[in-house]
């Protein structure tokens, strides 16, 4: 067991095309989660202004998984940094580790040039949690998910990523290899007995936190529940050491932006 000293927190994924529904979930789960995820479904339907709406409830994890040439990704990061409003812009954003070191370096420069120390944390997605070993091999990657996650993690952290998105099954290997500093944000989390859906590399919230994750990304186990607030509260209560919700600046390695002060 190597849970983080500050504990682990929950990010609720607001996966819906309906901004009013997303805001309803945000309001309901905010007392139990540290951040709220705006992903492709919500962002593409509702546009950048939805980031500000959601950020009124909790800091936003903007999960758009940029993957393009460095110049284009740098431009996208600048655009996203422009969504920073009074309530705080995205606290974290994602890009694909497979985009390469030059893309990640360009993203980091763009974020720093836009917002300086107030920039969002940059997270490199390693191997999507929906991939089995067989599905990954079919894309031409040899060696299995753990090896590929470690390979992309090394590349991304060297290029300036603040952290990684990985499955629960790679968390302890990443901690062994890279120590406590990288922010580990982990989807593929399923309370015992809940439906895995399209997720392949999964674990329970308890095991994910105990392995050393900073943040657990949980979508359908919360949003498909009859009572999303109760579902979020139950997952938070199951964590060995829940992170304080009102964390101060730089908690969990996050820059100070957007995090409510104590
Ligand atoms: O490898 C990845 C990267 C991102 N995600 C995102 O996390 C949530 C998980 O939702 P569930 O409903 O709990 O499965 C979702 O928004 C994904 O886009 C991921 O699952 N895997």
From TrEMBL:
Residues the entry annotates as binding substrate:
15, 37, 63-72, 129, 190, 199, 219-220
Q: Where is the Orotidine 5'-phosphate decarboxylase domain?
A: 9-235
| Pathway in which this enzyme or protein is active | Pyrimidine metabolism; UMP biosynthesis via de novo pathway; UMP from orotate: step 2/2
Enzyme class, UniProt record, top EC level: lyase
Q: What EC number is given for this enzyme?
A: 4.1.1.23
InterPro entries referenced in this protein's UniProt entry, alphabetically: Aldolase_TIM (IPR013785), OMPdecase (IPR014732), OMPdecase_AS (IPR018089), OMPdecase_bac (IPR047596), OMPdeCOase_dom (IPR001754), RibuloseP-bd_barrel (IPR011060)
Q: Which CDD domains match?
A: OMP_decarboxylase_like
Q: Which molecular-function annotation in GO is an example for this chain?
A: orotidine-5'-phosphate decarboxylase activity
What this protein is reported to do is described as: Catalyzes the decarboxylation of orotidine 5'-monophosphate (OMP) to uridine 5'-monophosphate (UMP).
The protein's name in its UniProt record: Orotidine 5'-phosphate decarboxylase
Q: Which organism is it from?
A: Teichococcus vastitatis
């Amino acid at each position: 067991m190597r849970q983080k000293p500050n504990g682990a927190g929950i990010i609720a994924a607001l996966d819906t095309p309906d901004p009013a529904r997303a805001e309803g979930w945000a309001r309901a789960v905010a007392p139990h989660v540290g951040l709220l995820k705006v992903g492709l479904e919500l962002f593409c339907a509702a546009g950048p202004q939805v980031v500000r709406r959601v950020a009124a409830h909790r800091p936003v994890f903007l999960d758009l998984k940029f993957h393009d040439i460095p110049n284009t990704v740098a431009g996208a990061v600048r655009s996203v940094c422009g969504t920073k409003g009074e309530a705080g812009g995205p606290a974290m954003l994602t890009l694909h580790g497979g985009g390469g070191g030059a893309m990640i370096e360009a993203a980091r420069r763009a974020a720093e040039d836009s917002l300086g120390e107030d920039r969002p944390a940059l997270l490199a997605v390693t191997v999507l949690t929906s991939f089995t070993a067989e599905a990954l091999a079919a894309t031409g990657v040899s060696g299995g998910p753990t090896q590929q996650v470690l390979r992309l993690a090394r590349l991304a952290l060297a290029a300036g990523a603040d952290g990684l998105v990985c499955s629960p099954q790679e968390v302890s290997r990443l901690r062994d290899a890279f120590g406590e500093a990288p922010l580990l944000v982990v989807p593929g989390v399923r309370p015992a007995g809940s439906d895995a859906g399209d997720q392949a590399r999964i674990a329970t919230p308890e095991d994910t936190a105990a392995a050393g994750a900073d943040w657990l990304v949980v979508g359908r186990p919360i949003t498909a529940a009859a009572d999303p607030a109760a579902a979020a509260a139950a997952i938070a209560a199951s964590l060995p050491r829940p992170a304080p919700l009102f964390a101060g600046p730089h908690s969990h390695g996050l820059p100070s932006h957007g995090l409510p002060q104590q």
